[in-house]
Design goal:
The complex is a heterodimer of chains A (about 110) and B (about 110). Chain A has about 110 residues and is mainly β. Chain A has no helices and 10 strands. In chain B, strands 1, 3, 4, 7, 8 and 9 form a 6-stranded mixed beta sheet that branches. Chain B has a 3-stranded antiparallel beta sheet with strand order 2-6-5, with no helix packed on it. Classes of the chains: A mainly beta (about 110), B mainly beta (about 110).
Chain lengths: ~110, ~110
């Protein structure tokens, strides 16, 4: 079964850090660029970051550039999102996805004091 | 970052046909096409159509996608109650070096 399973979400204070993980299974992980996409409560989808299949190329949305880092471990079929200097406006469900083919279930991140 | 343009809402009757549109530019939709996502409240997005307008396995033939220039379209025939959902388009933007999404169209089936 094709699957993406996110973990690592939770409640964090403003200025804090969190690391999200996404485990892939059921497909050839190294064939795909991987992305993180977020969705604030009641809002639309917003692309956050992407990493190419080899892990050497990345790009970020302006709103997270310099604070978030995407990485992947192809040996573990896992992609990560390191989130630093978190703000209230980062509160959202974070999805791991190939975007155009496969989506995970999402993990909730709440930034609040 | 600029996104794709979709009408915010649409209402159609049971059994009718709905055509949803998504307008971008030559850097995104016009260049590599758009994928269509369906999202029910409280659930993750599901891909209905890939950027080359093909349906993934398991997606009903009632959903079909097309593109003309910088505008992508999703047509849903024989509307069913379960089709009531948010529909969002997505595309790779070569100038932004990232993915852009439409704001989504909330489809109501009367």
């Amino acid at each position: 079964e094709v699957q993406l399973v996110e973990s690592g979400g939770g409640l964090v204070q403003p200025g804090g850090s969190l690391r999200l993980s996404c485990a892939a299974s059921g497909f050839i992980f190294t064939n795909y660029w991987m992305h993180w996409v977020r969705q604030a409560p009641g809002k639309g989808l917003l692309w956050v970051a992407r990493i190419d299949s080899g892990g050497s190329g990345t790009s970020y949305a302006d709103s997270v550039k310099g604070r978030f880092t995407i990485s992947r471990d192809n040996a573990k079929n896992t992609v990560y999102l390191q989130m630093n200097s978190l703000r209230a406006e980062d509160t959202a469900v974070y999805y791991c996805a190939t975007v155009f083919e496969i989506w995970g279930q999402g993990t909730m991140v709440t930034v609040s004091s | 970052q600029a996104g794709l343009t979709q009408p915010p809402s649409m209402s159609k009757g049971l059994g009718q046909t709905a055509t949803l549109t998504c307008t971008g530019n030559s850097n995104n939709v016009g260049n590599q096409g758009a994928a269509w996502l369906q999202q029910h409240q409280g659930h993750p997005p599901k891909v209905l159509s890939s950027r080359d307008n093909r349906r993934p396995s398991g997606i009903s033939e009632r959903f079909s996608a097309s593109r003309s220039g910088n505008t992508a379209s999703l047509t849903i025939t024989g509307l069913q109650p379960e089709d009531e959902a948010d529909y969002c388009c997505s595309a790779w933007d070569s100038s932004l070096n990232g993915v852009v999404f439409g704001g989504g169209t909330k489809l109501t089936v009367l």
